[in-house]
Each structure stands twice: as C-alpha cells, then as structure tokens.
Amino acid sequence: MSEVTESRRERARQRRGEFPPAPPPLPAPVLDSHTHLDITVAEAGIPGTPPGGDPLATAIEIATAAGVDRLVQVGVDVGSSRWGVAAAQRHPAILATVALHPNEAPTLAAAGTLDEALRAIEALAGHERVRGVGETGLDTFRTGEEGRAAQEASFRAHIAVAKRYGKALVIHDRDAHARVLEILDEEGAPETVVLHCFSGDEAFAAECVRRGYVLSFAGTVTFTSAGDLRAAARVTPPEQLLVETDAPYLTPSPYRGRPNASYLIPLTVRALAEVTGADLDGLCAAISATGERVFGPWRP
Ligand SMILES: [Zn+2]
Ligand SMILES: [Zn+2]
C-alpha cells in the first residue's frame, strides 16, 4: 500500500470514526444480501488484516464469527462489477452482482459511454458466481431531471439482462417507488426481484409483497425516526425478507455515522425480530433460506 493510500485511509478513518465493536453473534447463520467490500477496503480498510494479508479474508472471518457467513458483493460500475466477480471466484463466502448504479448511468451517458458500459455488464452477467443484476433502478434524490432519461434507459437495459441470464434483479429505489413499479410493469419483471435498502412505507411494502418481490432491510430499520420502515417489515413475510448492510454506509443504531460492515448485521436482525415478533432462531433460518433461494447456493 502506498503512503498516499495510507494517509487517505487515515483521513477517512478520522472523518468517519472507527468500526463499532462486534455485537453478540446470532444463534444461526445468515447472509448480508448487499455490501460494497471494495469501497469499504478503499475508504476505511479492514481492521485486523495482517500485513500483506487479504482484507477480504479478514472481513469474512469477522463476519462469520458474528453469524454472517455469506455475503453478496454488489457492483455499481464496470470496475466494481469486475472486482466483485474476481472476489467471488476467490472466496466461497462471496457471491457477486453486477450493474451500473442509477446515479452512474447519467454520467456515463453524458460521456457517451453508457452503451459500451452496458455491454461490459452484460458480458459479466453470465458468470457462474454472478447471481444478480444490480444495483440498478431509479434515484430521483441524487439525479436531477436532466439525468432521468439515461437513468430509466439504463434500468430498462438491466431488467432485460437479468431476464436473459435468469439472475435476480437488485433494485436501488430512492424517492421513486411508483415509477420503479411502472417500469417493471412495462418491461415485465424478472422472476426474482429484490428491493435493496427497502425505503417505502407499509402500503408500498404490501404492494411489493403482493407482487412476490423480496424486501431487503438495512440498518435504517433501527433508526428512531424509521417508524414507517418498521411498519413495512411487519407486513413482509419471512420468505420475502432479507437483511443487508449496504456497507460501508447505513450503520445501524447506536453506531450511526461510523463505518458499517457485515459483522454488524446481528444488530439489524435483532431489531427485525423485535419489530415483527418473530423468534430469533426462526428468523435467522428464514433469512438464510430466502437468500439461498434468491441468489442460489454459495457453495456447490
Ligand atoms: Zn443503493
Ligand atoms: Zn449499495
């Protein structure tokens, strides 16, 4: 690692704070359905990695000790998608998804490289360790009116790729619930649809459940202000419920603002058990089974 990288990491660490302590482990193994290990390694590093060691091996070890023994590494551009495929080939605990993020698509379109990038994503989608196409979708919070057309075109192209290769569609939906459903209807939804970092209310959750979609809850469900999300979790049956970190972002309470990682999933799973009244062992088993159904088996 270069000195420049090291000092950049140090600054990032000071800005974001240290990783929180490990919570008590879960009674049965679950998965993290959505993480960005590449960004975590680049921004915060993985503490405990021996000199010259593989930070991913350390991240997996720490997560497994907390009861999180399988991870889904999510791509946001061509580079991170390729990175995820390589990581999933190297580590049996990792599966990959590949995509151009909805906030990335307008930038690529402006540079005239969106079609080329979409072809690169499609070329990766057939890989055996790639089990999802995403994160794709709509984000009207960070993308303005001028980027809307490129964002929607990219979303439609990803839907087609997911269907062509029979992979789960992993949707990023920020402030665009109704339009996401409209586009899925227009294109025809793939067999498996996951709404990552579910952010709707009870009514939107009920509609997604009715359609057979899978709702993945992040650390946001633990936030004091997230009454709507907890209501959404209550109407989501366990066979349509997943749990994720979106690490290094969205760290659950009481560690908001500090970096997130898969070993913190127990905080979110325990909150979901409390909210839904499910027993913790049963909820872990259900999440695990849903993950294997959505993404396929991690190990042959
Ligand atoms: Zn997202
Ligand atoms: Zn994400």
* CATH-defined superfamily: Metal-dependent hydrolases
Order of helices and strands: HEHHEHEHHEHEHEHEHEHH
CATH fold field value = TIM Barrel
What small-molecule ligands were found?
zinc ion
* Poorly predicted spans: none
Q: Which class of secondary structure composition applies to the elements?
A: alpha/beta
Shape: globular
Average predicted confidence as pLDDT: 95
Number of extended strands: 8
Provide the number of structural domains.
1
Written description of the protein model:
- This protein has 300 residues and is of the alpha/beta class.
- It has one domain: TIM Barrel (Alpha-Beta Barrel), CATH 3.20.20.
- The protein has twelve helices and eight strands.
- It has helices at 3-16, 37-43, 55-65, 78-90, 105-111, 114-125, 148-165, 177-187, 202-210, 227-234, 265-276, 280-295; strands spanning 30-35, 68-74, 94-98, 130-139, 168-174, 193-196, 214-217, 241-243.
- It has an eight-stranded parallel beta sheet.
- Strand 5 (168-174), helix 8 and strand 6 form a beta-alpha-beta unit.
- Helix 4 (78-90) packs parallel to helix 6, helix 6 packs parallel to helix 7 and helix 9 (202-210) runs parallel beside helix 10 (227-234).
- The chain is globular, with a radius of gyration of 18 Å.
- The two termini are 35 Å apart.
- 50% of the residues are buried.
- The mean pLDDT is 95.
- The structure holds zinc ion (2 copies).
- One zinc ion binds at residues 135, 172, 196-197.
